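Entry 12.
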Amino acid sequence: MKILCTNDDGLHSPGLDALIAICSGIGQVVCVAPDREQSATSHSLTLHRPLRAIPRGPDRWQVDGTPTDCVVLALGALLPAPPDFVVAGINLGPNMGEDVLYSGTVAAAMEGLILGVPGVAVSFAGNEHDLIGGYRDRLGRLLERLLQPGRFPADLLLNINLPPIPADRVRGVRVTTLGKRVYAESLSRMRDPWGREIFWIGGGRLDWSGGDDVDFKAVEDGYVSVTPLKADLTHHASLEAVRAWRLGD
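Predicted 3D structure (tokens):
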């Protein structure tokens, strides 16, 4: 089995090193990752300048682009044949609720899905690097169970969030839906040294909502959250209602 590992925290992220070590126990790993932090780049592609893929060791490349760029280059140029899976992470910080739309980690796995390769995105819902290493055995067992050729439907991506606690305190695994998150006071207005108005997006207060089966609730309760996602954003339940608007008349 061949596994492409990537991320949005950059090639030298401890989370990526942990993921490579875990996946190396499951199959042959190739790593293609950004040369720097690319968080919240979502599914962006670099279209207005060339990209460079620089070898950084056996089966490891550094790309001066986005996580999506990395997967495109890997599958289109760097690998002799498509991998069996794309696994992105381990992201430092959660990717739950609507944040999956902004996440470079989820986007990298989604790009693999779009190109015909099943994807898994893995995030650690905290900011303590030291705790990630403790998840090697638990996450390894989970990925080994998931990464089975032929198991994934063609349109399936799995989004995994690890709770921000030591691995030996995890209570189990829950299959979840996406929760609802709302940021408050996340836009700051300020002045630069020359007195010109600028804005800073980030920070503020984060509130979650949803039922007992949502991702943030599982993580909050000490479980690993596994959320099935797909690329099709069509609101199928509304198709007939919108057709009834007779938009072509």
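Annotation: The chain has one domain: 2-179+211-243. The first strand starts at residue 2 and ends at 6.
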